[in-house]
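input
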Amino acid sequence: MQTIEGSELAAKYLSCLESGETPTFAAWLEFASVNGAADWKRPLLLLTSQRLIISKEKTFGKPKADFAITWPEVSAVSGGPWHGTYDP
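output
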């Protein structure tokens, strides 16, 4: 799968998917803040058929879903300008 920036998403980042989940969109964000907490620098935003996932960039170890929420639970998402193009 390609990220919105055009690079191929490494398979290790898909390790946080649950069985039956299909990734549909991926982007490296400048930062993310979840529920008003401190910013996470350069996390991966991964949208799937079932959830919105944010994974912090890790120097060592396997990526994980540092924040995940199912679509019925999402009440608001906000963000700044997107750079690049997305063509599914």
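quick obs: The chain has a mean pLDDT of 85.
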